[in-house]
Task: inverse folding
């Protein structure tokens, strides 16, 4: 038995996994490649593992897509469909761009392509396509996008991470790339090396405007400690990015400890146009303890897939994310309550017998309350608390007593984000799996993604209020069934 194996989050069948890679939608299939070390449950020589899904919920595992060769091991990267055959590799080639990391720790960019729906890849004969620049140690994780319209007018753009900056390149054929700009150098958080960038355009909700979003992984000192995802909002002219916010403003995509190296799917909807949904997911882990988490035959899980939006807030335009609606197919039983009054010292305790639940709750946040929210995966003196502290204006996910934590002294912590719920009503949408909790507050304005390692017997749940009574307008709890994960054919 594998009691910590998630029921509906993606995990490799065995061995080590980190970043999502090569995310592309083609022919009705969402491809998910990932950093994979097939021979051990700790990080090592990197391959690209591979899985596909038609619905973002149930996954089919496929054989390893890319393995190390004499140029190096295979680090993170992206994939696109070459609809116009600009690279002359064949009709509708799936083109993967990735980083080689060689024995001297030098990094270069390379290409591989598939003409059979991603089932097999051929490495380009003249790799690397962008050699390692002198004196640049960190030069990796190429994300390629098509900049232009759907009728073939435009060019390819690559963004990759280099130190505390990203570099932009452009190309007409995905093979020959010219530098076109850079961004970073004092913008945002530079508390760790930048990694795994992404770049996309989104409409701003409630307006006719769009903005470009540049996301980057920051290797250390993110809000919950260790690695985390920051983002910038601004403009992209096909060559380079400009930040519309002050240099010093730092925006985080998630306030939990376990949301890193997020990547969005290319080519969703109308050949990747802004009309398609912008969907992403992240490695649900943190470099602080990723190699020590207490799973057995595998290590590493992906977050739930989420849909991204830009929303106008009092502070400016911000990213919001919600779990994809496809997940509703996992709902089994539903229980719901209206107008509950929760008193201090008298929690409201619904009867729940499942490790895996989805919770939707709307709760008042009176200023006199010291704290309010939900405790979940409770039992034997352990619990994970999710809630709001009106006096400090903070949302929190407290996993300091969530279960196993002895593998790292930095795991058992309370994580917070400053937030003022509109009209004093906190809306939480929570997904609990066997070893994680994901929290989306007020339509995904703030999210927390956290691993927890509770005992499988601890399935208690309660709503609590401290300092004063609070009114719960609405509570819905769904028990969630498992997603299906199919082994490779043959
Ligand atoms: C991010 C990262 C990437 C790199 C990969 C190696 O987690 O460090 O920058 O390509 O992991 O596995």
Result:
């Amino acid at each position: 038995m594998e009691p910590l194996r998630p029921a509906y989050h993606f995990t490799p069948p065995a061995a080590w996994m980190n970043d999502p890679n090569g995310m592309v939608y083609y022919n009705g299939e969402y491809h998910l490649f990932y950093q994979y070390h097939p021979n051990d449950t700790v990080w090592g020589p990197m391959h690209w593992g591979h899985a596909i899904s038609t619905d973002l919920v149930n996954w089919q595992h496929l054989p390893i897509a890319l393995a190390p060769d004499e140029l190096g091991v295979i680090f993170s990267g992206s994939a696109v469909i070459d609809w116009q055959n600009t690279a002359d590799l064949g009709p509708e080639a799936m083109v993967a761009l990735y980083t080689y990391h060689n024995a001297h720790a030098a990094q270069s960019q390379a290409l591989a392509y598939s003409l059979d729906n991603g089932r097999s890849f051929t490495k380009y004969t003249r790799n690397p396509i962008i050699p390692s620049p002198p004196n640049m140690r960190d030069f990796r994780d190429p994300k390629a996008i098509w900049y232009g319209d759907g009728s073939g007018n435009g060019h390819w753009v690559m963004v990759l991470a280099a130190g505390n900056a990203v570099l932009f390149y452009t190309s007409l054929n995905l093979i020959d790339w010219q530098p076109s700009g850079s961004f970073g150098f004092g913008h945002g958080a530079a508390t760790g090396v930048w990694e795994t960038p992404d770049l996309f355009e989104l409409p701003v909700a409630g307006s006719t405007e769009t903005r470009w979003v540049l996301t980057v992984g920051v290797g250390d000192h993110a809000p919950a400690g260790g690695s985390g995802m920051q983002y910038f909002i601004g403009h992209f002219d096909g060559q380079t990015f400009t930040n519309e916010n002050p240099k010093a403003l730092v925006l985080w995509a998630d306030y939990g400890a376990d949301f890193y190296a997020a990547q969005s799917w290319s080519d969703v909807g109308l050949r990747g146009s802004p009309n398609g949904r912008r969907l992403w997911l992240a490695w649900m882990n943190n470099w602080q303890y990723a190699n020590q988490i207490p799973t057995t035959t595998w290590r590493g899980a992906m977050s739930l897939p989420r849909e991204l939006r830009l929303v106008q807030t009092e502070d400016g335009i911000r990213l919001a994310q919600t779990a994809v609606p496809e997940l509703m197919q996992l709902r089994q039983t539903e229980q719901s309550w209206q107008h509950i009054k929760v008193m201090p010292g008298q929690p409201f305790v619904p009867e729940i017998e499942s490790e895996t639940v989805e919770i939707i709750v709307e709760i008042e946040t009176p200023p006199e309350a010291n704290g309010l929210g939900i405790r979940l995966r409770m039992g034997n003196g352990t619990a994970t608390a999710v809630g709001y502290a009106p006096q400090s204006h903070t949302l929190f996910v407290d996993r300091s007593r969530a279960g196993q934590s002895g593998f790292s002294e930095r795991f058992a912590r309370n994580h917070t984000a400053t937030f003022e719920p509109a009209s004093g009503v906190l809306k939480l949408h929570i997904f609990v799996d066997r070893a994680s909790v994901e929290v989306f507050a007020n339509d995904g304005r703030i999210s927390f993604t956290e691993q927890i390692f509770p005992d499988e017997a601890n399935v208690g749940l309660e709503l609590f209020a401290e300092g004063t009574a609070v009114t719960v307008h609405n509570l819905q709890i769904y028990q969630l069934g498992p997603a299906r994960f199919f082994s490779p054919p043959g």
